Amino acid sequence: LKFSDMPAGCFASLEALPTAGWLQIMITTCMMETGYFLFEAQTVEKEPGDIGGSFWIRYDDPEVKTYKLNIERQNGRAAMMGMIGCLVHELIGVDALYPTGGLGGAAPPTIF
After folding, report:
1. Is 39 in contact with 49 (CB distance < 8 Å)?
2. Residue 61 Cα distances to 35, 58, 65, 93, angstroms
3. pLDDT (0 to 100) of residue 53
């Protein structure tokens, strides 16, 4: 499967991915979660979620750590809302990446 063979829509691209591709994604994710690949396994000596190894940035100041965790949480929420917006656009028949074309998919009006 070539990249050019993938459809442009969010749902269509998910459906077009072969089962072997999904299996490869799941195996890689499981290997990372268990510490076999790229990350270290979670142990009782470490804080929960501290699996990044020596390259992981750790903050000793609780105020800085709280600030950084809140930034990460807010960015995650913004990303989830963006994805929901793309999925809703596709469900109502509008191109999620270039929605000004209208429901019929016509080209948007020229600006200049």
Report:
1. no
2. 27, 9, 6, 48
3. 74
